Amino acid sequence: MRKLTAVAGSAGFLVVAPGVVAGLVPWWLTRWRAGADYPVPVRVTGAVLTGAGAAALLGSFAQFAVEGRGTPAPPAPTEHLVVHGLYRYVRNPMYLAVLALITGQGLVLGRPVLLGYGVGVAAAFTGFVYGYEQPALARRYGPQYEAYRQTVPPWWPRLPRRHTGPGR
């Protein structure tokens, strides 16, 4: 797949999947109206989560298009296994980014309904990853994916390893 096609496909999928899950549905649930008056530190935490989630999501989609030469959409998968960027630390940064967006919105708006919705989305993501995505990646990329799977955790990011060579 050419880079331009991969970028266009990824951008389209970004609007359709995460755009609906982390944008349209939260809007339907809240109309972006504030609910409970959460303390300022909670709202600030929500804003940080929302910003970090958006940055991670956009970066991960770009990584799929540029490094993987494909899209996150199952009908147009990447040509190459994506293992750089955030994928060095966690296997599912897109899902985590979407959950950060939903949780962040819930905290900023003071809307517990979004936190409950986030729990449901997390359950759906987990089922999809273990029921479809991991077996599909194992079939597509074989030993390369298995080696990646053995070294990078699925949900809780591992911290970068520090070099501890001679003299340190």
Quick take:
The chain has 168 residues and is mostly helical. Helices cover 65% and strands 0% of the residues.
What would the keywords be for this entry?
168 residues; 6 helices; 65% helix; globular
Folded structure, characterized:
This protein is an all-alpha fold and 168 residues long. It has one domain. The chain contains six helices and no strands. Helix 2 packs antiparallel against helix 5 and helix 3 runs antiparallel to helix 4. The chain is globular and about 50 Å long. The chain starts with a helix and ends in a 17-residue tail after the last helix. The model has no long low-confidence stretch (mean pLDDT 93).
Shape, per Cα inertia axes:
globular
Strands, count: 0
Taken together, the total number of domains comes to 1
Largest sheet: none
**Cα-atom radius of gyration:** 17 Å
Helix content: 55-70%
- Our count of helices gives 6
H-E string: HHHHHH
Share of residues in strands? under 5%
Q: What does the average pLDDT come to?
A: 93
Structural class: mainly alpha
Low-confidence stretches: none
Distance between the termini: 45 Å
